[in-house]
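Page 47, continued from p. 46.
Same chain as before, 288 aa.
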Amino acid sequence: MITELAALRGRTAIPYHDPANRGRTVVLECYRPASHAPDRPVVLVQHGMGRNGDEYRDAWIPAADRHGLLIVAPTFPDESWPGPRLYNDGHVLEEDGAARPREGWSNAIPERVFRQLQAAGVTTRSTAFLWGHSAGGQFVHRLLGLQPQDWLESVGAGNAGWYTLPTLDRPYPQGLGGLGLDDAALERLLAFPMVIFAGDADTETAAENLPRHEAALAQGPHRFARAHAYLAAGQAEARRRGVPCGWRLVVVPGVGHEGMRMSAISAEYWFDGIMPTAQAGRVVRLEA
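Result:
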């Protein structure tokens, strides 16, 4: 039970049974440092296709200890959530391509977890940080376009294999069409201050887990190129509509498809105000 966190410190693994997805267990891999208080930030961390939420949780522990962060990594076991349709794509579609009931989408689960943390008094924050790497980067940027945003402080998508484009003219998951979204929902997505973290060494073109279907290849030969293409698509759509685009691309020099290193760097960006420079091992403090 999530209420257990109120009395626990350190690492904890809590089974979570989502009311809209009975029979599909999610494991909350949590870390609550000794310095944590309910008013400190909450970071929800989404793993990649390795379904290794415990390792991603641990990668955020140094930042949690420095800043009193509560880390919660909702882990979608492959046994319960097999394949990219149920995890990366948010379990939005049935196998035949029909849209599923919205309350059963897997990308609705992080908000429900956060609301339970609030209800249990584990946090008094009104918003949370949401971050994901690789398949988790796919999960979180799609969540941002499909779910309410009022509970989100910032969203970071790292090294995603490919992206759902910000358009209603293409069916999901190539675009956001066919799901009942309107122009206002698309413009909220464009305005949100999403951070796209991209390792400039994430340039493999033949990796086994790199999506190579037609829609993915149209975005570029590798993940680094696709991150730039996604930002460009968002900026172009915002210009076409005459609305702001709040997205930002953060290039991480010297880092490839490395979830643990990207975790540490993203934590420094958000909570220490620093980011890597082109000089290996050097960081610069962001301007206030």
